[in-house]
Structure formats: C-alpha cells, structure tokens
Amino acid sequence: MKRLLSFFSNPRVLSVTIGVIALLALSVVPTFSVKELHVELAAESLLEHGPKWFTNGLLTTLLVDIIIILMAVFAVSRMKEIPGGWQNIMEMVVEGMWNLTQSIAGHGSANARKFFPWVMTIFIFVLISNYIGLLPGFGSIGIYHGGGGDHAQVELGNQLAMAGGEAVAASAAAEEGKPVLVPLFRSPSADLNVTLALALISVFMTQFFGVQALGLSYFGKFFQNPFKRPMQAVVGFFELIAEISKIISFSFRLFGNVFAGEVVLLVMAFLVTFLLPSVFYGLELFIGFIQALVFMLLTLAFFTMATVSHDDHH
Questions:
Q1: Could you give the count of Cα atoms lying within 13 Å of 85 in the half-sphere of its Cβ?
Q2: Is residue 7 part of a domain?
Q3: For labelling, which of 13, 205, 233, 234 has a CA lying 20 to 30 Å from the CA of 29?
C-alpha cells in the first residue's frame, strides 16, 4: 500500500492518472453537441449548386494521387548508395512486394516484371485510400447544404438526394429545411465509384495480359463449340460468368469492408468517446492493410492464371 501511495505521489503519474480517469468519466456521458449520426452510402457532391460529379470521394482520390506522387518523388530525389530514412523504408516495401510477386508469377520471369508495376501501384493506392479515411477530420469537417432555401429548392434537393442513394435521415432534414453537413473528405475505398473503377482495371488488364500471352486462343476457355465439345462449352459459360462476377466481388469486398469499418468507428465514437474507439481504430489499421494486400494478391493471381494456356491445366 505504501509503495502504491508513493507511486501516485509522483506529480507526473498523478496528472496522467487524473487525466485518464477524467476521460473515462467523460466517455460515458452522451455527446451533447451531436444529436444524430450522419452516414451516407454514396459519395456526396461538395458544391450544392455545382456539378454533381465533384464529390468528396473524388476530392480525396485526387489527394491520394498527389500523396503517392510526392512519396515517389521524395524517395528517388535524394537516392544514396547506402539508403537511410525514407529511402530505406521505400526500398524495404518495394523489395518485399517484389519477392511476393516473384513467388506467384515466377522467379525471374518476364511476367513478374510485367505485372509488378500494376499490382504495386494498386497496393499503394488502396493502402493509402484505406488509411486516409482514419485521419482526424474525415466525416467531421464539411460544408452545410440545404439551409435557408425556399420550399421548392429544398424539395428538389431532397429528390436529388433520394435519387443519389443518400440516407433517409439526411433527406428528412432537407425536407424540414435543416442544413445537412456534407463531409469535405471521404475515403476513396468507401466510394463505390473508386472500387468499381479499380475492379474494372483489374479485370480488363487480366484479359489484356491473357490475349497478349496466348493470342485469340485465350478466349477458348470461355467459348467452345457446343456440338463438338458440349461439356467444355458448359464449363466455358460458367468461366465467363465467373470472370464477370470478379468485377462485383472486387468492388463490394473492398467497399463493404472499409465503409463498414468507418461506420463502426463513427458509432463507437458517438457512444463512447474514449478508449473503446481506440480498439476498433487498431483493428481498422490491420483490416486496411489486409484489404490492400488481398486486392493486390488476387489481381496478381488473376494476371498469372490468364497467361497460362487452358490446355496446361489438363
């Protein structure tokens, strides 16, 4: 008991302890400044009377692109024979991903050198897109829309909101003439437009590499003469369905995981403002990395399988 009292007699320890207890006490008090959560399934237009395509998801995507370009420029601008600092980190990441690519596409193969720029770019883009949505200010800093307009404008805005797939709570607020906060930033991975674009790129390049390696015979795994090879024609039909379904699975896997994670963090922070959200925050850091790695590995696996002749499987 004496040791415990002497431990807390230290002013620094006592200050930290009092701060932690105060935060824990405040965390169970309902947030009085926020009456309801604002969750939107679709990316929202930033300019109330401007183009609808300029959304918070697009703005953040441009920001991610700038970050990636700056990372690359900063990594190679001061390259040294003995790397240090940022160059060392980037070389470690690139070397690790290169070894992983070779283990799947083949060590020293031309395919590994051909696929690596694509899958590495996808990995970095998805990873930064996943993590940037965890920064402070995402979802809380924004622009108010819908306040002070007449009834006709509010009704029109509400109809556009419903057509765009926005939440019922936001639509109800627009009907009442209340301003609705539109977040300035939104994680690109939580925007279905971005994940769909990534899926289309991945599937299109799969077909491109397949045709480049095998020629028009690549499409033989999809289309067969049903009169001469009926079983192969049925299998080819299912192969075609599976190829198209990759677009859906790629898009919604990444979007669903990242969007659901952001909603969980928002709900936890709304209910308990301290300690508990930190646990889910750490979980989201792990999930963000795993999702980027899974997207990269699946794309690499599809690239590799597309360059293998269908007859080689038998």
A1: 9
A2: no
A3: 13
